[in-house]
Design goal:
Blueprint (H helix, E strand, L loop, with lengths): L3 E2 L2 E2 L1 H21 L6 H8 L3 H7 L3 H26 L3 H18 L1 H8 L4 H5 L2 H14 L5 H14 L2 H9 L5 H12 L7
Antiparallel strand pairs: 1-2
Helix pairs in contact: 1-2, 1-4, 4-5, 4-6, 4-8, 5-11, 8-9
Length: 193
C-alpha cells in the first residue's frame, strides 16, 4: 500500500480512485447498488480486485466516498438553517426537510453505507459526528445534558435509512408527515396543536 508520498496521494492513484468512483456510480445508477458487486466494478474497469480493495475496503466504503462531498453540502445547508432561524421548531423543520430529501434521493447508497458491516464506519465519520453535534445543540438547554444526548441518539436512530424507509413504505408516511412526527416526538414543548 504505497499510495502516499509525503502525506499526499499520488496523482495516478488519485486518478484511479476517481475512475473507480465514476464507474461504480454509473453502474449503481443504471443497475442499482445491490445489483453491482465489487467484482463487477473491477471487471468493468479491467483492474484487479487487489487494486480495487487498495482504494476501498468494501462496497460500503466505496458508496461512502461516492457521496462524501454531498455530506459536506448537506451539513453546510443545515448550518445555514441555524443561522437563519432561531426557534428550535423552525431549525428542526428546515434541517429535517434538507436531510430527508437527501435520504430519499440517495437511499440505495445510504443503505449500503449504513449496512451492518459499515455501521461503525458511518458512525465514526465526520458527517455523523457533525450531525450528532447539530441536533445535540438543538436539544441542549444546559439544564440536562444527559437528556439532550439521549434525545440526539434517539433522533439519529430514527433517521437511519432503514427506519425512514419503513415509515415511508409500510406506514405510508410522506417526508413531511415523518418530519412533523419527529418534531412532535422530540420537541413536544415547541408543538402547539
Amino acid at each position: 500500500m504505497n499510495f502516499k508520498r509525503g502525506g499526499m496521494m499520488r496523482k495516478d492513484a488519485l486518478k484511479n480512485r476517481q475512475r473507480i468512483e465514476e464507474k461504480a456510480l454509473a453502474l449503481f445508477n443504471s443497475e442499482g447498488v445491490d445489483n453491482v458487486s465489487m467484482n463487477r466494478i473491477s471487471k468493468e474497469l479491467n483492474i484487479g480486485m487487489g487494486t480495487l480493495y487498495r482504494h476501498f475496503k468494501d462496497k460500503g466504503d466505496l458508496c461512502y466516498h461516492i457521496i462524501e462531498h454531498d455530506f459536506d453540502d448537506i451539513m453546510k445547508c443545515m448550518l445555514d438553517v441555524k443561522q437563519y432561524y432561531t426557534s428550535k421548531k423552525d431549525i428542526m423543520t428546515h434541517s429535517l426537510d434538507i436531510f430527508l430529501r437527501f435520504k430519499t434521493d440517495n437511499s440505495d447508497l445510504l443503505n449500503c453505507i449504513e449496512g451492518n458491516d459499515n455501521q461503525k464506519m458511518f458512525r465514526s465519520s465526520e458527517f455523523f459526528k457533525n450531525l450528532n453535534q447539530y441536533y445535540f445543540d438543538v436539544f441542549n438547554d444546559y439544564e440536562d445534558t444527559a437528556w439532550a444526548i439521549f434525545k440526539t441518539d434517539m433522533l439519529l436512530k430514527s433517521l437511519a435509512t432503514h427506519t425512514f424507509e419503513f415509515q415511508k413504505k409500510e406506514r405510508q408516511l410522506s417526508n413531511e408527515t415523518f418530519r412533523n412526527n419527529l418534531i412532535k416526538l422530540y420537541l413536544p414543548e415547541e408543538v402547539i396543536e
